[in-house]
Amino acid sequence: MEEKLDRRVKYTKMVLKQSLLELMEEKPVGKITVTDICRAADVNRNTFYTHYASPFDLLSQIQDELFLEIRRSIERLSGTETVPGLLAEICRAIADNGELCKIVISEHGDKAFLGRVLNIARAESIADWEKRKKNASREELERMYVFTASGSIAVIEEWLRGGLKETPEEIAHFINSMTNFGQSAFLKP
Q: Cα–Cα distance between 155 and 65 in angstroms, integer?
């Protein structure tokens, strides 16, 4: 009996998530009501509130699950991969969840989510640059990361909006090449 209940809960949560994401294709989460979600999912409001406090809470849980999935795929490489390899893995994980990522970072979603994902490679990036430019201050390295991450986010957003035509490896290579080009003057010994 408990297994049947557990399957129903999983199904209900899945339907609520799908309904929110479908609605987010048309309007921002701030304009989506619990009633909208329940109508699309064909569940009642009490069922919604059993699992989530609001549409924002539901979106937050969707983002947290996606973030954990991406982080797990990257952690499998942790310690054995270079920064370009981590970037390629981030791009692969984004591509594997392309439709979801496209909605989550769309104009109707949360643009900060992609920054959170790229932040996974922050420590490795800064450590790599620190080795290459020993006299750089922590502030300079942090600023360089912010600059690099912002450009990477813009490229990945455009890649998602364009339908993921390039492979994750091509996008990662482009970002890495542009990053290396832009940093070449700064990182000279």
A: 23
Helix (H, G, I), strand (E, B) or coil at 111: coil
**8 Å CB contact between 121 and 93:** no
Rounded distance between C-alpha atoms, residue 161 and residue 30, angstroms: 22
Q: Where are any strands of DSSP class E within the chain? A: none
C-alpha distance from residue 8 to each of 15, 65, 104 (Å)? 10, 19, 25
Give domain limits for the chain.
82-187
- In the structure encoding, which two tokens stand for residue 82, read together? 């270079």
pLDDT 10s digits, 70-80: 888 777 765 55
Q: What is the pLDDT of residues 44-68, one digit of tens each?
A: 999 999 999 999 999 999 999 989 9
Q: Are 49 and 34 in contact (CB under 8 A)?
A: yes
What's the pLDDT score for residue 51?
Answer: 95
CA dihedral (171, 163, 94, 25) positive or negative: positive
The beta-carbon contacts of 61-66 under 8 Å, at least 24 apart in sequence, are 61/17, 62/17, 62/20, 62/21, 62/100, 62/104, 63/104, 63/110, 63/113, 63/116, 66/97, 66/100, 66/101, 66/104, 66/113
**CB-CB neighbours of 63 under 10 Å:** 19
- Looking at residue 185, its pLDDT comes to 65
Average pLDDT of the chain? 86
Terminal C-alpha separation, the chain: 67
